[in-house]
Design goal:
Blueprint: H1 2-15, E1 38-41, E2 44-47, E3 51-54, E4 57-60, H2 66-86, H3 92-103, H4 111-114, H5 119-137, H6 144-151, H7 156-173, H8 207-211, H9 214-224, H10 227-230, H11 235-242, E5 258-259, E6 263-264, H12 265-299
Antiparallel strand pairs: 1-2, 3-4, 5-6
Helix pairs in contact: 2-3, 2-5, 3-5, 5-6, 7-9, 7-11
Length: 300
């Protein structure tokens, strides 16, 4: 199938007096495979790669985008180091402008593609964000949350959620050409408020390709968004309101409480409750068994 489509592309190139540069052609196949895959494109053979770079985004075959986020972190870290060396010669206003323009902007390119990275990568992003804020505000005692309040901003993950909500708002109000229009399906009920409609949450069977997908994640968050924000009359009003909304209702794996080296805290508590319950049950059974043994000796 892939080779047939490649032949169609080659014919189009020839009909338009163009030549395909096979050196710039890449093949990547997602999912588990027993062996590497290759394909014939013209007279050349293109082998499968574990990761490719397309329009500035590093795409790995598992679609986790951790390597891409780590590359962004490396770029942001270098810029933060330069800012730290220059901070003594700059005013607060200039430091904040440089931070917004050269550091925070690194995480604003196609964030909806790579926002479902793992927890370790998210912690690294937050550490870089915290480091930059400490340099800008010259504050090395406040916590990361206090620095965000002082800066009147949110963490990178929450900012990505805001951008996702803005894209969904554009779908409801049919503003411009939106590539996400096929991902989200409007619900039939609550038709009186067009912008206040709910989205149909698809049923999923996995986490990686189910709950960690734009279709599921965006639908759940939009339905939890306050009605007064959803019924905003214009996109500018919606953006001003969404900036004040902190998505504490987010239940993704990055927002859940987590104990390092142990796991999700709620799951740990659940297992602890079960363990205590089983211990109490064992003690109850042992006491009951002793009573039965004593009753047996009394009857004898």
């Amino acid at each position: 199938m892939l080779e047939e489509n490649a032949e169609i592309v080659l014919c189009w190139f020839e009909n338009n007096y163009l030549k395909l540069n096979t050196d710039k052609c890449h093949l990547i196949v997602s999912g588990y495979k027993y062996e590497h895959i290759w394909a014939h494109v013209g007279e050349d053979i293109i082998w499968e790669k574990n990761e490719v770079k397309l329009l500035g985004i590093t795409i790995d075959r598992e679609l986790k985008f951790d390597k891409h986020v780590l590359k962004i972190c490396a770029k942001a870290s270098r810029k933060i180091s330069v800012l730290a060396r220059m901070s003594k010669c700059l005013t607060f206003k200039k430091k904040r402008v440089i931070f917004k323009a050269f550091v925070e902007s690194q995480f604003q390119y196609c964030p909806l593609v790579w926002m479902f990275h793992n927890r370790h990568t998210n912690n690294k992003v937050n550490r870089l964000h915290e480091r930059a804020l400490r340099i800008v505000y010259n504050d090395y005692e406040s916590s990361f949350e206090q620095l965000l309040i002082k800066d009147k901003s949110l963490c990178i993950h929450y900012q990505n959620i805001h951008r996702l909500m803005i894209e969904i708002y554009k779908i409801f109000n049919e503003e411009g050409v939106n590539v996400f229009s096929e991902l989200f399906i409007k619900s039939n009920h609550n038709i009186n408020l067009r912008s206040g409609q709910d989205l149909i949450v698809p049923s999923v069977q996995s986490v990686l390709k189910g709950k960690n997908s734009l279709r599921y994640f965006g639908s759940v968050l939009w339905n939890s968004l306050p009605i007064d924000i959803r019924i905003s009359e214009t996109i500018s009003v919606f953006k001003s309101k969404i900036k004040k909304w902190k998505p504490d209702c987010c239940k993704c794996r990055l927002c859940k409480e987590y104990l390092e080296g142990v796991g999700l805290s709620k799951m740990v508590l659940l297992y602890l409750y079960i363990y205590i319950y089983m211990l109490n049950l064992c003690d109850f059974l042992m006491v009951g068994l002793k009573h039965l043994v004593g009753l047996k000796h009394w009857l004898a």
